[in-house]
Design a protein that fits this description.
The chain has two helices and twelve strands. With about 190 residues, the chain is of the alpha+beta class.
Length: about 190
């Protein structure tokens, strides 16, 4: 049994280091590790969320309209951006997001200026975006909201993290090693 525990601990130590989003659940109560981009709105860290006690809230303050002509000049956009590095391998950026009011949320990797996905869900939903590759590299996670109507609307982000995607071959090797170890123990016990 001691042998199996030793092999298991060695396998865990051989796993690649977890790449990281800093302060992905906003547990510091602020935007440590994040850059904010505020145009016609503001970003804040508020109590509540899906993981822990804090989440990021982007409050969007509606379209800005020219009074006399009624012309719409643009919509409100507020966002947060974080740059992070991942080693070579298959990784996945995972985060929880939801909107309140008439907003659209956007997320992007690797370029925060190009939306990868958009969402309008009103309940917290977990999104997963595959990233990484044989070379690894530096990625930028951009998350922002945009108003789709006048008035104050909000977009929330919580529990952003980077997780490894195990390769099928790794499971096969682990299973083969486990079977070999159990067979060896059984043969040893019988003799």
């Amino acid at each position: 049994m001691r042998y199996i525990v030793t092999v298991f601990i060695a396998a865990l130590l051989a796993c690649p280091a977890v790449a990281g989003i800093v302060n992905g659940s906003f547990e510091t109560g602020d935007f440590t590790g994040w850059l904010t981009d505020e145009m016609r709105g503001y970003a804040s860290v508020v109590p509540g969320g899906t993981d822990g006690s804090w989440s990021a809230k982007m409050t969007l303050q509606g379209y800005y309209v020219d009074g006399p002509s009624g012309a719409v000049f643009g919509s409100a956009m507020v966002g947060v951006i974080q740059e992070f590095q991942v080693p070579a391998g298959a990784w996945c950026l995972v985060f929880d997001a939801w909107v309140i009011g008439a907003s659209v949320g956007y997320a992007s990797v690797p370029n925060p200026d190009e939306p990868l996905l958009s969402f309008t869900n009103t309940n917290p939903t977990t999104f997963a975006v595959p990233i990484g590759g044989s070379q690894g590299g530096v990625y930028r996670f951009g998350f922002w909201g945009e108003d789709t109507s006048p008035g104050d609307n909000c977009v929330y982000l919580d529990n952003a993290r980077v997780v490894v995607i195990p390769e099928p071959g790794a499971f096969g090797l682990l299973l083969t090693g486990l079977v070999a170890t159990l067979t060896w123990r059984r043969v040893r016990r019988c003799s």
